[in-house]
Amino acid sequence: MKVLRNENNRGYSPVFDQILDPENQVDGDYKESFFIGIEDFKDDPHGDTPFYGPNLWPDSDVLPGWQATMENYHQEALRVCKTIAKLLALALDLEADYFDKPEILGNPIAVMRLVHYEGVSDPSKGIFGCGAHSDFGMMTLLGTDSVMGLQICKDKEAKPRKWEYVPSIKGAYIVNLGDLLERWSNGIFKSTLHRVLGNGQERYSIPFFVEPSHDCLVECLPTCQSENKPPKYPAIKCSTYLTQRYQQSHVDLSIYKQI
Ligand SMILES: O=C(O)CCC(=O)C(=O)O
Ligand SMILES: [Fe+2]
């Protein structure tokens, strides 16, 4: 298939391509999706930016105008996320534009994913639309349709976990905080643990994942540590962290070459 997901994580990702909670899932996620990211190469002198690269587009006679619509949505979603980042900065006692630096959201990794679910989930059998996880990066701007499916667990340490449905509100987005933000903020912001259950109806969602630049060193922010509260997490380069998380949760691309 011309647009099958490639090594830059662009294009079509089939059902079971990802498994987000292998401990509790028997199969992969019952979802198919399409990844669209940033193409810009201007800050890539060494080619060491695996999350930038050309997008894969279906032929324009198959879906006329689709590429322009998606590019426009990507641009606008990023603008919204940069505004939310200002609120996050203020909440952490940082200057409002703290995250606008070139190494952070000046050159972000921003991956938009168009997701389609079908089928009926059954947690007792380990079948999920999308297994329990928290998103990897800084924040996710999540657009959903009106079909219920998304659940969050407010207390990540609780055993057993208590899951609550998130109602979809027409015209509103859901914002999930990610694991890189939890690390940066030394746990002041907790990433949102969530999963998706299928109820037999088709369901569509558009998560827009925002991460800093490839080279950004994500280390405890100055305002989030003190003598009594030392950094809980070691510093890590954004691209190293994301690459690990993508590889751990996706099947190896070589399996598609054997088909
Ligand atoms: O479909 C949803 O509502 C959530 C999707 C999601 O959590 C993800 O793709 O990371
Ligand atoms: Fe997610």
Question: Could you give a quick summary of the protein structure above?
Answer:
The chain is α+β, with helices and mostly antiparallel strands.
The succession of helices and strands, N to C, reads EEHHEEEEEEHEEEEHH
Number of helices: 5
Low-confidence stretches: none
Radius of gyration: 18 Å
Shape: globular
* Strand numbers in spatial order across the main sheet: 1-2-3-10-5-8
Pfam families: 2OG-FeII_Oxy (PF03171), DIOX_N (PF14226)
Protein name: 2-oxoglutarate-Fe(II) type oxidoreductase isoform X3
Family: Belongs to the iron/ascorbate-dependent oxidoreductase family.
Organism: Camelina sativa (False flax)
Describe this structure in words.
By secondary structure, this protein is α+β, with helices and mostly antiparallel strands. The protein is built from five helices and twelve strands. It has helices at residues 66-91, 102-106, 179-184, 238-249, 254-257; strands at 11-13, 31-36, 109-117, 130-133, 139-144, 150-153, 164-165, 174-177, 193-196, 203-211, 217-218, 236-237. The strands form three sheets. A six-stranded antiparallel β-sheet has the order 1-2-3-10-5-8. The longest helix has 26 residues, at 66-91. It starts with 10 loop residues before the first strand and ends with a helix. The relative contact order is 0.18. The site of fe (ii) ion (FE2) has 4 residues, from loops.
